[in-house]
Amino acid sequence: MAKPKVLVTRKIPPPGLEIVSEYCDLDLYEGYEPIPNAELLSRIRDKDGLLCLLTDKIDKSVYDASPRLRVVSSYSVGCEHIDVDEATKRRIYVTNTPGVLTEATADLTWALLMATARRIVEADSFVRKGLWKHWHPELMLGHEVHDKVLGIIGLGRIGEAVARRAKGFKMKILYYDKIRKRDLEEQLGAEYKDLEDLLKESDFVTIHVSLNPDTYHLINESRLKLMRSSTILLNAARGPVIDQKALAKALKEGRIAGAGLDVYEKEPIDLDDDLMRLYNVVLLPHIGSAEIETRSKMAELAARNLISVLKGQMPPHLVNPEVLKLRPLSDVKMM
Ligand code: GLV
């Protein structure tokens, strides 16, 4: 039997590529930059499977160009770059990589929290520029972290992992989620708050929701106004959850103390963005899961998801389970 044809849109770490090439006829886009759209549309034409990244827009035009496509496996947990509803209508399986990047993203959130609160990036550049002449009682004063109030927006896997770390800092943990999680409240000692109260009462606010129509600009101008002037806002989830212009204005006017951001409304962030000129922000290039070990696990999981579907087996993480009714796995099976 001929092997299924699969397009992988970027060089992902070896375990992923090894698994895909063992079972499939692999077409790998080798560029360092995202695959150009025209190239994607041309190379997907004869493919049964696609392993893509969050930088690839997978929409109707991709499905139109690929009449044989059975599975889209994303090397990411977020899937807003994929038109999942349309994929389901066309009986295409969509998979993602949750779980394996939970702890990495929680660690990065904490790195952002500490770096922003204690002005680590600013202090490093101060030393490198040769500006450090004396120890001074008021040099690089930051904000206390331990014993403070941490407000978590979205107590899913990553939010929970962030909360576990906060216990080590003896922080009071507040959370807001559209679903109340009473078991976690008990385990973590977390207190449920509505969003407005959480914003008013927290010293650090950290965002861990996925991006969807309900969470778009969840943190807007009026909600930023509820926060204290000593509060620090963190986002390692998705940029459009915050109204970025309103955030830059709040930071510039000193209405909040600082922000640590790994994600932006538009990525990469423009060099002339107002945030670029502010010192009370730490800006990272969307590296939440960027650990050697984690990226390998993501590659392996993305490959396993893809291969499972093509083998007619239930993939470890199916994003659109409704597809099972429209096209059973036995009908997708190619090997
Ligand atoms: C990263 O942002 C991911 O969704 O995996």
Topology:
Blueprint lengths: L4 E4 L5 H10 L1 E4 L8 H7 L5 E4 L7 H6 L5 E4 L9 H6 L3 E3 L6 H16 L2 H9 L20 E5 L3 H12 L3 E5 L5 H7 L1 E3 L2 H7 L2 E4 L13 H6 L5 E4 L8 H9 L5 E4 L19 E3 L8 H19 L12 H4 L2 H4 L3
Parallel strand pairs: 1-2, 1-3, 3-4, 4-5, 6-7, 6-9, 7-8, 9-10, 10-11, 11-12
Helix pairs in contact: 1-12, 5-7
Bound molecules: glyoxylic acid.
The site of glyoxylic acid has 7 residues, from loops.
Low-confidence stretches at least 5 residues in length (pLDDT < 50)?
none
N- and C-termini, Cα separation: 7 Å
Instruction: Decide which structural class fits the backbone.
Output: alpha/beta
User: Outline, from the CA principal axes?
Assistant: elongated
CA radius of gyration is 22 Å
Helix content: 25-40%
Sheet with most strands: strand arrangement = 8-7-6-9-10-11-12
| Average of per-residue pLDDT values | 98
Biggest beta-sheet profile: 7 strands, parallel
Number of separate strands: 12
What's the gist of this structure?
The protein is 36% helix and 14% strand. By secondary structure, the chain is an alpha/beta fold.
Task: List the main descriptive attributes of the protein structure presented here.
335 residues, alpha/beta, 5-stranded parallel sheet, 14 helices, binds glyoxylic acid
Description:
It is a single chain. The chain has 335 residues and is an alpha/beta fold. 36% of the residues lie in helices and 14% in strands. It has 14 helices and twelve strands. The protein has helices at 14-23, 37-43, 60-65, 84-89, 102-117, 120-128, 157-168, 182-188, 195-201, 221-226, 244-252, 292-310, 323-326, 329-332; strands at 5-8, 25-28, 49-52, 71-74, 93-95, 149-153, 172-176, 190-192, 204-207, 232-235, 258-261, 281-283. Strand 7 (172-176), helix 8 and strand 8 (190-192) form a beta-alpha-beta unit. Helix 1 (14-23) runs parallel beside helix 12 and helix 5 (102-117) crosses helix 7 (157-168). The chain is elongated, with a radius of gyration of 22 Å. Glyoxylic acid is lined by residues 54, 76-78, 101, 288-289.
